[in-house]
Amino acid sequence: MLTDSAQAVEIPADQLGSQVHWEAVFGSDGPVEIDVGCGRGMYLIDAASARPETLFLGIEVVPKPFYVACERVARRAIPNVRLLRADAREFLAEQTPPASVSVVHLQFPDPWPKKKHHKRRVMTPEFAASVARALRPDGALHIATDIADYFDELLLVVEASGAFRLVEEGRYDAEGEIVTNFAAKYREQGREMHEAWLALDATDTAAPAGDAPF
Ligand SMILES: C[S@@+](CC[C@H](N)C(=O)[O-])C[C@H]1O[C@@H](n2cnc3c(N)ncnc32)[C@H](O)[C@@H]1O
């Protein structure tokens, strides 16, 4: 059961309506970033504290980490974070207004290493298309993982969509970088991590003013 302050952080999925209205959800206007599979919320908390003008939505499908994230955000009274307990694939495909999101983060998605489980992976051609539709013309997709093969596959799927161009690719281990719960753990273990930034390839569309990542 969530405390009252944590309940204020949660967007009740049944009250979302057919499409989310960002300004109504956050009570303010600003660039929106979505953290897909936000887990226990470390990235959201640190990124939102560092960039108070940006609105962060964490989406987490599993109740336990979701409630931990809600309580942590509420305890710190961070005004620019909301959390949604939902399948991010459905939210992005159905309830995200087109061209309304600045950045979609997909950090350390579950790799589902067994072949028979590959269909459970979040990144699919359909998901890449949903992300492309949700992003503003100046928007970007950020992906990170500790598994080299999976990183290559994520990039393959995203690039095959034809909707993105690779802007940056490299190691995800910079000292002082704002990191996720998993990245913090892997950094301590000295494990190599990989990340990429892909810009939406929509150069023919006029970009709205704002904090474009690129
Ligand atoms: C390996 S964890 C990484 C969590 C966090 N991003 C981090 O780096 O610490 C992957 C998370 O994605 C969540 N997840 C998996 N599929 C999801 C989906 N379709 N929608 C929302 N969350 C999802 C899982 O429940 C899990 O918490």
Fill in the CATH topology: Rossmann fold
Average pLDDT value?
92
Q: Domains counted in the coordinates: how many?
A: 1
Shape: globular
- The number of helices is 8
Provide the spatial order of strands within the biggest beta sheet.
3-2-1-4-5-7-6
Structure report:
This protein has 214 residues and is of the alpha/beta class. It has one domain: Vaccinia Virus protein VP39 (Rossmann fold, 3-Layer(aba) Sandwich). It has eight helices and seven strands; from the N terminus they run ααβαβαβαβαβαβαβ. The chain has a seven-stranded mixed beta sheet, sandwiched between helices. The radius of gyration is 16 Å and the shape is globular. Bound molecules: S-adenosylmethionine (SAM). Residues 36-39, 59-62, 65, 87-89, 107-110, 122, 180-183 line the site of S-adenosylmethionine.
